[in-house]
UniProtKB/TrEMBL annotation:
InterPro entries: TPR-like_helical_dom_sf, TPR_rpt. PANTHER family: CELL DIVISION CYCLE 16,23,27 (PTHR12558), CELL DIVISION CYCLE PROTEIN 27 HOMOLOG (PTHR12558:SF13). It comes from Raineya orbicola. This is TPR repeat. The keyword Protease does not apply. TPR repeats lie at residues 292-325. Keywords: Coiled coil, TPR repeat.
């Protein structure tokens, strides 16, 4: 047991070293099958049961769940690790969990505690830079980028970081320049391909988007975001079968990609596969309840499957979402009429039954 735990710790150290040379965020170190297997989880769980005061085991469990995108579980275990020992890498992982869960105030607080402990650590500065970009805090992002350039001038991630910053500031030419340079410097880093593909999709150049997605998939052949970019590009080209193929592959890798489940749900709805459509659309609603038409589509599914009360609820939500949605208004009107006819029929049946009983000798 102890040998296995030490082996895991050694792997994590190797991963951390590799990331300083070739990774942008902790999410990208999920390639160590020996650590991220179900067997390793079971071993870590048993180790934690035997020694619930071991902060390293709690941290490793948090990492395991983080790389499985189970952020709440990851957060629970990293908090347990922090109760035992307040270390910079623990606060960093907590900040990343909170950020993934969109708890930005908590993420900022944990990041600040990380910086207080390790203000010049590469991964800490890199996440601080990324977080500032995501919050559109451009001056802060520039400040962290300058620190990274000063302390780690040879780090290949910096070129990608400049490209991402340019992209978020809508400086398209600079984004293309730095991202293509990032690919040349570090062809194994898939985020560069993803952002280039996304940028070409955004600029309505779907053929180029597919080209860069294909290049990235040669590096990481099961990357959900690259499948999504390919699907969106095929959709722009009005190739629905190809789009459906890659939306499905993206969904199978990561059901949080609501664009994929929404497209698949809409296609199933058109094919009158209502239960299949409902499964996809409910998933999309879970992650993006404000998507246009999603309430109306869910209303149709529920009505076709005989769940009239839910259908009423979602038609009403659709109208609240878009007061000019005539299809939702019409559907709601006809459903209410149908329910009223059914109510009247039940009432008449009850009266008829009561009268029949009364007339019995």
């Amino acid at each position: 047991m102890q040998k296995f735990i030490f082996k895991i710790a050694f792997i994590l150290i190797l991963v951390a070293c590799q990331e300083q040379k070739a990774r942008f965020a902790v999410q990208e170190n999920a390639q160590i099958d020996a650590f991220y297997s179900l067997a390793s989880l079971q071993t870590l769980q048993k180790a934690w049961e035997n020694d619930p005061e071991n902060d390293i085991t709690a941290y490793q469990l948090a990492l395991w769940y983080f790389h499985q995108k189970e952020y709440n579980k990851a957060k629970d275990f990293v908090q347990k690790a922090l109760k035992i020992s307040e270390r910079a890498e623990y606060y960093l992982l907590k900040a990343q969990c909170e950020n993934a869960l969109k708890n930005f105030t908590e993420a900022r607080s944990s990041l600040q505690k990380t910086l207080n402990l390790e203000k010049n650590n590469f991964q800490v500065l890199l996440f601080a830079f990324q977080f500032a970009m995501e919050q559109s805090e451009w001056q802060e992002a520039e400040r962290y980028l300058q620190k990274l350039e000063k302390n780690y001038p040879e780090a290949p991630q910096l070129t990608f970081a400049k490209g991402k910053l340019a992209f978020l500031k809508n400086d398209t030419l600079q984004a293309y320049h730095f991202l293509q340079k990032a690919v040349e410097q570090n062809p194994a880093y898939t985020e560069s391909y993803k952002l280039l593909s996304h940028l070409y999709n955004q600029q309505n150049q779907p053929t180029k988007a597919i080209e860069w997605a294909n290049k990235g998939l040669k590096v990481k052949n099961l990357y959900d975001s690259l499948f999504l970019e390919k699907a969106l590009a095929w959709q722009k080209l009005k190739e629905k079968d190809s789009a459906a193929k890659y939306f499905l592959r993206a969904y199978q890798q990561n059901n949080r990609l609501y664009q994929a489940s929404f497209f698949l749900g809409e296609q199933a709805l058109k094919a009158e596969k209502y239960q299949e459509a409902l499964n996809f659309l409910e998933n999309a609603y879970r992650y993006a309840p404000a998507l246009p038409k999603i309430n109306y589509f869910l209303g149709i599914c529920y009505e076709k499957l005989g769940k009239d009360e839910l259908a009423l609820d979602f038609y009403q939500k659709a109208i609240k979402q878009d007061a000019e949605d005539l299809m939702a208004r019409q559907a709601l009107y006809f459903l209410k009429e149908k329910l009223e006819r059914e109510r009247m029929k039940r009432l008449q049946d009850s009266l008829w039954k009561a009268q029949s009983l009364k007339n019995e000798p």
